[in-house]
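Subject: design request, 329 residues
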């Protein structure tokens, strides 16, 4: 065990109990920034590059933080570093502290009359292709100084970031799973559509059942996702099993490339299918799905005041969704 892995105190000493006064006097914000960067990169070398510091400076900062806390925070291996149980516990708190600092800056700037701000948004395939880009473009026309950072992932990857404060909003399919401390604002209910490349053999049909497409390769969301499970049910109801050739993917760019380069069939939320069909990149296949994609909307942390920039993006999302609803009437 090296210095980075060794807690403060000699062998045989009782663990030192931390108190608020000790942390106020000895804990430094810079230490938390360094730890956060090391854990995000899983590397002391990469963290040093990101923060423009030397590796010895990074190691010394972590060592001093461990001495203050009296606990080892990192485990080294030939694959980099990973948090100990103490490091993981601190990581969750650090994310929250750093996110509060970002919000503090936005609050002070707003009081000074600044029109900018920073919004960190998690998004999924259901919003990334149409809803969120449309809302961002709308927002930029009215508030060009607001900075947006986007992170893609599944709900299970993104929603916890709302609770820690890493994310301000998650835009996409409203999860069926209950997450403590999170509230949801549905914007519209979305249907599912089958899609394929322009000129696909099935694209000339007036109506298609799942049986007619069963022999084609399919690109589906990952197993255990609500949409994947809904498709399994619909195939069963049609007396079919899932197609034999299935690629599971959540990457819209990868899916588009696979669809355009083969006779594969994919499924997308209707708004996303309409978006790519209008650009001539995909064809919408005349398949009637008996289950919807689900509700699309905005998720945010319960009980947390939203900064002006976050409220502005939320309003833009709602306005874009209302416009789409009027167009569909």
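Subject: RE: design request

Done. Sequence follows.
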């Amino acid at each position: 065990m090296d210095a980075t892995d060794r807690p403060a105190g000699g062998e045989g000493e009782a663990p030192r109990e931390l108190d608020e006064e000790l942390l106020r006097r000895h804990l430094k914000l810079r230490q938390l920034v360094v730890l956060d960067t090391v854990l995000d990169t899983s590397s002391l070398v990469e963290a040093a590059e990101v923060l423009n510091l030397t590796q010895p400076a990074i190691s010394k900062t972590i060592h001093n933080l461990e001495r203050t806390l009296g606990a080892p925070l990192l485990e080294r291996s030939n694959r980099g570093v990973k948090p100990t149980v103490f490091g993981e516990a601190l990581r969750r708190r650090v994310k929250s502290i750093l996110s509060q600092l970002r919000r503090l800056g936005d609050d002070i700037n707003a009081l000074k009359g600044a029109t900018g701000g920073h919004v960190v948004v998690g998004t999924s395939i259901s919003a990334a292709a149409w809803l969120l880009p449309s809302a961002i473009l709308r927002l930029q026309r009215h508030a060009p100084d607001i900075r947006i950072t986007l992170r893609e992932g599944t709900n299970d990857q993104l929603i916890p970031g709302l609770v820690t404060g890493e994310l301000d909003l998650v835009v996409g399919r409203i999860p069926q799973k209950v997450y403590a401390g999170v509230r949801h604002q549905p914007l519209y209910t979305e249907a599912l559509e089958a899609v394929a490349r322009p000129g696909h053999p099935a694209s000339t049909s007036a109506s298609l059942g799942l049986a007619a497409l069963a022999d084609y390769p399919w690109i589906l969301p990952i197993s255990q996702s609500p949409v994947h499970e809904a498709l399994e049910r619909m195939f069963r109801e049609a007396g079919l099993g899932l197609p034999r050739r299935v690629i599971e993917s959540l990457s819209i760019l990868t899916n588009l490339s696979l669809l355009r380069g083969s006779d594969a069939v994919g499924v997308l939320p209707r708004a996303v299918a309409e978006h790519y069909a209008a650009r001539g990149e995909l064809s919408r296949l005349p398949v009637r799905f008996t289950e919807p994609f689900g509700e699309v909307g905005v998720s945010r942390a319960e009980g947390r005041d939203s900064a002006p920039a976050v409220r502005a993006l939320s309003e833009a999302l709602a306005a874009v969704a209302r416009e789409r609803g009027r167009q569909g009437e």
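The longest helix spans residues 85-111.
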